[in-house]
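Format notes (please read before filing issues)

Several people have asked whether sequences and structure tokens are stored in separate files. They are not. Every record keeps both together, in the order shown below: the sequence lines, then the token lines. Line labels are part of the format and must not be stripped during preprocessing.
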Amino acid sequence: MSIVGKKFPNMSIDAMSEMGENLKINIFEEATTNQQKILLFWYPKDFTFVCPTELHAFQEALPEFEKRNTKIIGASCDTNEVHFAWLNTSKDNGGIEGVSYPILADTHRQLANALGIVEQDFEYDEDGNEIFSGSNVTFRATYLIDEEGKVFHEGVNDMPLGRNVSDFIRMIDAYTHVQKHGEVCPANWEEGKDAMSANRKSTAEYLAKH
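Then the structure lines:
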């Protein structure tokens, strides 16, 4: 179930810093208390395949997000100990050494289940016993949260499909434009391009021009 337009769940989750510090992070409070946007991205599992490419891609783009007052937070259902081991594994050995943003360790799947992003299913046998199926790890879900704790974007990729980091920068730019100017952003909008007022006249003028 989508939570776009709603407040992000208000709960504290274990996390790991780049220095190996055990943290508790509340995404909602990070946004509202610090008056910043949050990009929270979930990935299936540490020490896997597509996942390190995404963590490094977000790290490389970190200055662009910081310029936009946006904090990056990664997340999976691995433990802090596994996160720390991966953070201390070199990039050329499949690790994420050099990643400097925090990573949630939602080992009990408290937040992941609240968001509905865990690959799991339950069936019942003839005797009524519950049978679990699925990997019990998360899909590649991404949430953009504003300074009031409201979700203004969510997206979920299947596990084999890596994300395009630059498109999240574009969406943050678009949402910030809406916040500042009260306009709406048309298809393929990028910073510096024309936006529109939310009325028929402005839409007609935009379409006539473009």
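For reference, the curators noted about this record: The chain has two domains: 12-163, 164-210. The mean pLDDT is 95.
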